[in-house]
């Protein structure tokens, strides 16, 4: 398939940042070639959640839908942090001895490569960053400030919410709004209602979590049926993954050409630094594609990998790396989960995942809690048997009858402070199927992160105790590297000497290269999910590029 033609911009990656950039460029009259390394997913065929065995089916893995990575330094399990070790009442073998290397999760770096990117399996939390999160370094002494503020992104937050259809309430944890949410909030699930009432007893102000999932028909898409399986893929199209929202809108303009299974292996700058072409492999055929403008949105791991792998004589340390910061400042997901069993079933297996949130005790704490019963898989009997209920045979059956629907899981996500030991590099030996070096991930938790995990655990346990539950399981980033949200590696800043891209996300070193994913984040926020912010940044960048 010949890719060179009449396009004005090339977008690499079709997740939150790539899809938003592609839509904005198309809406402004530009012709866009969108290159996605992974396959397309068919919601009806690939997400069979109405068939037996649904609980054993995670999000599907298709050929080419997982990136190969390797592991560098992930830190060690320090003996003084044994109180944070994972455990389960059912005896699931999570514990590793102190001094062991901290392992990645079983699925490794689980970010979907495919049309829609990781929005295909995200739960759909639609968070604006708190105004204070943009100046976290100044407020808390940890991390870095952004070169832009909340007011710079507020109009773009609003546009994304209106385009995709976000459901929420006016009470939004101090995030002021110029317009209300386009859709009313979802009803709270039984488990979330318990947390809301328990939180009142101890000063935790739980509220409805804003969601990309539709609460009413919107944009020719149906409302949510509350099956609770968002992370396994949405067969109805009510969850606002980019394939059914932004990319559908971009296709409607007639200006989008989307090519799945198209792997970009190298970017080629000209003498002045301008990116002139990209080498793309579709099937087994490699070809060079002209790049009037490039929007790179491959994520905080694959974006620096491609730029580092594109090193040449004039850019020996990789493209966009005049500052030496490319691949640096990597931030993983600082997460924790605590699970309690109520005295009797409360039908906690039902409802929208992540439907309730507590924004936390303030900016200096740097974390939030959310209701995560469905998101963590506790909406089916197999998870109860494997993780929560000990025993075998008749004893297990009796325990299941007594307890199924009684589990309440509280999740916590917190701010990560960049550390010099946490970065993305090219693996010196391992290559992918196209002969390119794969990304090697190093990520070490700092003392601040360990202290924050303890604060997160204290808050999660407190609300579960207030709900009169018995603690039966806990797990956290202390024992496993977590990559639900990853940030940094192409930091945004005003000075070319200390950052990779400008406040508008254009590379300091290449006038026609824009980076529109979470790699540009100077900080990880206070636990907010990043998709809405990624999309808002991408709209802003594409608008500036097309001006």
From TrEMBL:
Top-level division of the source organism's lineage: Bacteria
Molecular function via GO: flavin adenine dinucleotide binding; oxidoreductase activity, acting on CH-OH group of donors
Keyword list, A-Z: FAD, Flavoprotein, Oxidoreductase
Cell division as UniProt keyword: no
Domain spans labelled 4Fe-4S ferredoxin-type: 215-244
Cofactor(s) this protein requires: FAD
UniProt cross-references to Pfam families, sorted A to Z: GMC_oxred_C, GMC_oxred_N, NAD_binding_8
SUPFAM superfamilies: FAD-linked reductases, C-terminal domain (SSF54373), FAD/NAD(P)-binding domain (SSF51905)
InterPro entries per the UniProt record, alphabetical: 4Fe4S_Fe-S-bd (IPR017896), FAD/NAD-bd_sf (IPR036188), GMC_OxRdtase_N (IPR000172), GMC_OxRtase_C (IPR007867), P2Ox-like (IPR051473)
Family assignment from sequence similarity: Belongs to the GMC oxidoreductase family.
Protein name: Choline dehydrogenase
Species, as recorded: Rhodobacter aestuarii
